[in-house]
């Protein structure tokens, strides 16, 4: 058994994910019935320890955690699941789900190499920002879709070669003109029409990695219509492939990925942009009561980087 976490500033943090809606809607585990705890990631300092944790952790030690029930002031975390971090800093929180998803999916499924062309959808979001940077570190040519000039500017600042603001440009036209041979790897999280566009834009032997389909999560079924009936023929003609990625299926890779990501963040080799909602109508996301606003903010496409909620005077994990 593990203990409770609280920072020296009496502040903890929890992260917002697109999948929060799918989980709370019962789409991940239909056997779970309300009421149940929600949220996937948080951080704080240890405030209490169980016997099995006392040899590895100390009270006051900063840790983060990735497990259901994170939207809480206090949470019990098994010692083996707690992730030591240098300090309680929200940038580290952005790595737990978003950073790890980008890192492991591209490493295991992307087959990235120098000179490859990579398209990242929702590139300025919590996960997209890491996919852009990791693809650039692999010396790929990276294009990223976004919805505003401000997001385009952010993408340029983290190395994206070609931000595409789909509000003012047709993504298909840009790809046809600038990637005439197609895109080697697509990192896709939007679904619906964007998924269809991505399939049509794949190069011969191209790979599409699905890490989500946020455009459909708020529908009754959690899906968004797509022209899947012609998909096999399109893949066959290009010897292309589609791979789904769900982080929990790669948990054996998680600790090593987090160690590398934290090191890159500490060494300023990786930008970990966080969005506290300061520009939202009701201001900064503070306290558990603001989680609902933070999720709405994400689904309106307003965020740049990872959405984080601050929990003042609270504890985030018990080991």
UniProtKB/TrEMBL annotation:
SMART domains: PKS_ER (SM00829). Keywords: Oxidoreductase. The keyword Acetylation does not apply. GO terms for molecular function: 15-oxoprostaglandin 13-reductase [NAD(P)+] activity; zinc ion binding. InterPro entries: ADH-like_C (IPR013149), ADH-like_N (IPR013154), ER (IPR020843), GroES-like_sf (IPR011032), NAD(P)-bd_dom_sf (IPR036291), Quin_OxRdtase/zeta-crystal_CS (IPR002364), Zn-ADH-like_protein (IPR051397). Its EC number is 1.3.1.48. GO terms for cellular component: mitochondrion. Pfam families: ADH_N, ADH_zinc_N. PROSITE patterns: QOR_ZETA_CRYSTAL. Residues 3-309 form the Enoyl reductase (ER) domain. It comes from the Eukaryota. SUPFAM superfamilies: GroES-like, NAD(P)-binding Rossmann-fold domains. It is an enzyme of class 1 (oxidoreductase). PANTHER family: PROSTAGLANDIN REDUCTASE 3 (PTHR43677:SF3), SHORT-CHAIN DEHYDROGENASE/REDUCTASE (PTHR43677). Belongs to the zinc-containing alcohol dehydrogenase family. Quinone oxidoreductase subfamily. This is 15-oxoprostaglandin 13-reductase. It comes from Pogona vitticeps.
């Amino acid at each position: 058994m593990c203990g409770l976490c609280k920072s020296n500033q009496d502040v903890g943090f929890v992260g917002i994910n697109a999948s929060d809606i799918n989980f709370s809607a019962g789409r991940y585990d239909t056997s779970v019935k309300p009421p149940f705890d929600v949220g996937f990631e948080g951080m704080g300092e240890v405030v209490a320890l169980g016997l099995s944790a006392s040899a590895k952790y100390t009270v006051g030690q900063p840790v983060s955690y990735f497990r259901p029930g994170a939207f809480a002031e206090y949470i019990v975390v098994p010692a083996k699941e707690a992730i030591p971090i240098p300090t309680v800093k929200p940038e580290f929180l952005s790595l737990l789900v978003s950073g790890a998803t980008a890192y492991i999916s591209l490493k295991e499924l992307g087959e990235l190499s120098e000179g490859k062309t990579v398209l990242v959808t929702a590139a300025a979001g919590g996960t997209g920002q890491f996919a852009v940077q990791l693809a650039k570190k692999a010396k790929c040519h990276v294009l990223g879709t976004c919805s505003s000039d401000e997001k385009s500017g952010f993408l340029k600042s983290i190395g994206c070669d070609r931000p595409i603001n789909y509000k003012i440009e047709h993504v298909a036209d840009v790809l046809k003109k600038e990637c005439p041979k197609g895109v080697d790897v697509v990192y896709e999280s939007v679904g619906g029409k964007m998924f269809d566009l991505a399939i049509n834009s794949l190069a011969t032997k191209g790979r599409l990695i699905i890490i989500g389909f946020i455009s459909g999560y708020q529908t009754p079924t959690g899906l968004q219509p797509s022209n899947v009936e012609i998909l096999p023929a399109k893949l066959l003609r290009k010897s292309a492939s589609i791979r789904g990625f769900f982080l929990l299926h790669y948990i054996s890779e998680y600790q090593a990925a987090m160690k590398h990501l934290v090191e890159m963040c500490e060494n300023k080799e990786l930008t970990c942009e966080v969005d506290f909602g300061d520009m939202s109508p009701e201001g900064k996301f503070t306290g558990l009561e603001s989680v609902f606003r933070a999720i709405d903010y994400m689904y309106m496409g307003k965020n740049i980087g990872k959405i984080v909620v601050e929990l003042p005077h609270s504890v985030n994990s018990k080991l």
